[in-house]
Design goal:
The structure is a single chain. With 469 residues, the chain is an alpha+beta fold. Helix content is 55%, strand content 22%. The chain has helices at 2-8, 11-36, 39-51, 61-121, 131-156, 222-225, 325-335, 360-467; strands at 190-199, 210-219, 229-236, 242-250, 257-268, 272-273, 283-298, 301-316, 340-349, 352-359. Strands 1, 2, 3, 4, 5, 6, 7, 8, 9 and 10 form a 10-stranded antiparallel β-sheet that branches. Strand 4 and strand 5 form a beta hairpin. Helix 1 (2-8) packs across helix 4 and helix 4 (61-121) packs antiparallel against helix 8 (360-467). It starts with a helix and ends with a helix.
Length: 469
């Protein structure tokens, strides 16, 4: 495991170191800012100049008003300082919020390193693919090609509608064939319906597959008849093998389209040879299969789907004995499988088909292999995860310690400035209000004094007038 760690060149170590460098560098930038930022001097001067003022000790009203102007100027200074601190506080929070993203990213870094180690370790992927294709692919392709040959033979005898009927040019001076109009609109050749019956063996005691059914609409000019040719055949065998073959050949338009459905049930697979591989069975000793095929032709384009459900299977490994442990596991898994489903698709032109296969064998074998090897695989993966988690925890503990220390130091300073300024703002505001109240009181006293003087003057004047003879 130590070798794998070295070989994998873990990115998490370098990335966490890079994060630590970013945290330290960001803190250094803010420490440089603090070197040139000295709000303590302004705070101290404002406190000394204004907080100890007692408005009542100021001699004259003009002096009180002058003091108020200076307090208002100090209030603006402290307000501007508060705004600056608020902006810097937000910027610091944004910087450390960005730095905190490293802690959220580390799990993604861990996953990348984990996958990198798995590549170096080359732990096996126990998902098995294409076993169904390897076992039965060649046989299915051969069967499909064989069936398509029969279907193409049937299609070959169905005429295609041409854009224009060819007109015969009579030789000069020769007689003419006069074609009288067909009042009923029948094509030149037409069989409305054929009833068929037959069997695959000559003996009545053992007739084999007994078939019966109808074929309708056989014609040389389907575009005149206006109906497709329909084939509907069914078969039954004593050992419960049954089959259905249906077809619709529609050549009534310029673009022909034909479709065929084929079904067989309980088809015997006894002693059926399959693909030769070093670790898969060579043949099926015993088994049965249900077969469904759907084929669609449009002009020369073909689309086919084949579904096979094989059951009661017994595979033969006699020719594939091995001492290889992995091969033995696969053979052990295969020998316990008695149901196989296969799905094949074919598309393209009949002479150049693209085949695709899907089978339950892949999942079954994968599941069995995983059950056998999952514990060893899990142990190996857990060792890798545990080592990576340990590395992550150690490196992140270092990064978190630096982050917490730097953030606290930077944030504590700006928070301390904010608290001092907010406190001073309240006190300056209170001092301003105190001076304004003193000014109001003194103005009122002056007004009362003037009123009293005016009243005394008027009273004296009235008294002098009353004393005249």
């Amino acid at each position: 495991l130590d070798s794998l760690i070295v070989m994998a060149d873990l990115k998490i170590v370098n990335r966490v170191d890079s994060a630590k460098h970013d945290i330290t560098q960001t803190a250094d930038i803010w420490n440089e800012f603090y070197k040139g930022f000295h709000p303590d001097n302004d705070i101290k001067k404002i406190k000394e100049d204004f907080l100890s003022i007692d408005p009542k000790q100021i001699n004259t009203l003009p002096e009180v008003m002058s003091t108020l102007d200076r307090v208002k100027s100090a209030r603006k200074t402290i307000s501007d300082l508060s705004d600056t601190i608020g902006v810097k506080q937000i910027e610091i929070q944004q910087d450390f919020s960005r730095l905190s993203k490293y802690a959220r990213d580390i799990d993604d870094w861990l996953k990348e390193d984990y996958q990198q180690i798995l590549k170096k370790a080359k732990l096996p992927d126990l998902n098995v693919k294409n076993i169904g294709k390897m076992l039965f692919g060649r046989e299915i392709v051969n069967r499909i090609n064989s069936y398509l040959g029969y279907l193409q033979t049937i299609r070959k005898y169905m005429p295609e509608k041409s854009d224009k009927e060819k007109e015969e040019t009579p030789e000069r001076m020769a007689g003419l064939n006069i074609a009288f109009p067909d009042r009923l609109g029948y094509p030149k050749f037409l069989i409305r319906k054929i009833q068929l019956s037959g069997q695959t063996r000559a003996s009545d005691e053992n007739p084999g597959l007994v078939m019966s059914g109808d074929i309708t609409g056989i014609t040389s000019q389907p575009w005149i008849y206006g109906k497709p040719t329909v084939i509907d055949l069914k078969g039954l065998q004593q050992d419960k093998l049954s089959g259905i073959f249906t077809g619709i050949l529609n050549h009534t338009t310029d673009i022909s389209s034909d479709s065929f459905n084929i079904q067989f049930k309980n088809k015997a697979l006894n002693d059926m040879s399959i693909a030769k591989t070093p670790y898969l069975p060579n043949k099926i000793n015993k088994g049965k299969a249900d077969f469904t095929g759907i084929v669609r032709f449009k002009k020369e384009q073909l689309l086919a789907r084949i579904d096979i459900d094989a059951h009661a299977l017994k595979f033969d490994f006699a020719q594939s004995q091995t001492k290889n442990r992995f091969v033995g596991i696969v053979q052990e898994v295969m020998s316990g499988i008695d149901v196989v489903t296969l799905h094949a698709k074919a598309a393209g032109k009949a002479d150049n088909l693209d085949f695709k296969f899907d089978s339950n064998l892949d999942d079954l074998v994968s599941k069995k292999l995983k059950a056998m090897g999952s514990q060893a695989l899990t142990d190996a993966q857990n060792k890798i995860r545990d080592r990576l988690n340990k590395i992550r925890d150690e490196k992140m503990a270092e990064a978190n310690k630096i982050y917490d220390e730097k953030k606290k130091a930077i944030m504590d300073k700006i928070d301390d400035y904010k608290n001092k300024v907010d406190e001073l703002k309240q006190k300056i505001e209170a001092k301003k209000n105190e001076l304004e109240e003193e000014i109001k009181a003194r103005k009122k006293a002056e007004e009362d004094k003037l009123k009293n003087k005016a009243k005394e003057g008027i009273d004296n004047l009235l008294q002098k007038k009353t004393k005249k003879p």
